Each structure stands twice: as C-alpha cells, then as structure tokens.
Amino acid sequence: CIIDRAAILRKTLTLRCRLCSAGNRPQRAVWEDPTRTLMGNERTLLLFLLPLRLVCGYALLVSGLSKAAAGWLTNPLLGVRLSEWLKGGHLHAYTEVLVRHLQHHAQLYSTAITAGEVVAGAALLVGLQARFAALCGAITAIVPLLGPLEGAERSAALVLFAGLLSLGLASAGRVIGLDAFLRPRLPPWLT
What's the pLDDT tens digit per position in 33-54? Predict the structure, then answer.
C-alpha cells in the first residue's frame, strides 16, 4: 500500500513510501510531483490562462469604472437601458420576466453590477481569489446577453462571458497572482 506523508515545499512534492508486504518496512522512497499531468506541469497550463485573466480583468474594470463615471452608482441607469429593451419587443418570453424584475429593482442592480465589475476586475488583475472573482464577473456579464444585442456587441459580450466562465473553472490566480501566496491557507476549491 502507499502511505501519503506531509506535503513538502508547498504541496508540490510528496514523499510516498512503498511498504513491502513482509515486515512493513519501506522498500524505497519515491519522489513524485502531483502537479505533473499528461500535458505537462499544472503551472505551465495555468500560465496559458494569464493573458485571458488579465484581459478579462481589464475589460471588467474599465466597464465598471465607465459605469461609475456615468452615474450608475447614484442613478438607476440600468432601468433606462432595460426600458429600451422592453420597448423594442425583441425579448424572449423567459427573459422578459427577468428583465421586468431587474427594472423593478434598477437602483439596486445598477449599484451591484457597477461595484461587482470594478471589484471583480481588480481582483482578476492582481490574481486575488481569481476563481470567485471570475464567477462574479460572469454573473455581471450575463445581463447584456439578455438584451437584444446584435452583431459585434453580442459577440464581445459572449466572448467575455465564456472567458470568465473558463477562468472560474480553473485556478488562474495561482500564476503571477496573490492566490499563489494564499493557496496554503485556503481550501483548494477557493484558490
């Protein structure tokens, strides 16, 4: 049988001893790197997500700051946009119910979307709780997809949503981010 001992060097190398069946004495010590996969090192694969993390973080931060400058924190400007969508009549039946709910609570959702985009964008840029920040950013990126966007606007919103969803599934903050320092202190699903 294989007995796992305490992780060494920030859980990257693990000492595994094979016990022989006669006398339960260690037969040999084998050093294994648990981050190695068939595709290479896990950190190498996460390094490929760094540009996506930075671009999505920048896009969210710029979008949130422009909304804050336009007055979304003090005025229910989301309600104005939703009213235009409802007047156009190009909404599906299932999204019309959600859009009416958002319009009824326009000030709350205007503030939440603006603050969420700023916080999630800044967190993605520095790699702090990148998984959680990406999922929160994906929630704020859903709202434009509900409306009657066409062409390049819809494509850009869909690409941002897909990128944030991908970052939410991976732990991209561990590479050149603050999640690398928080990893030993937090549960693995959070970093």
Answer: 455 554 455 555 778 889 999 9
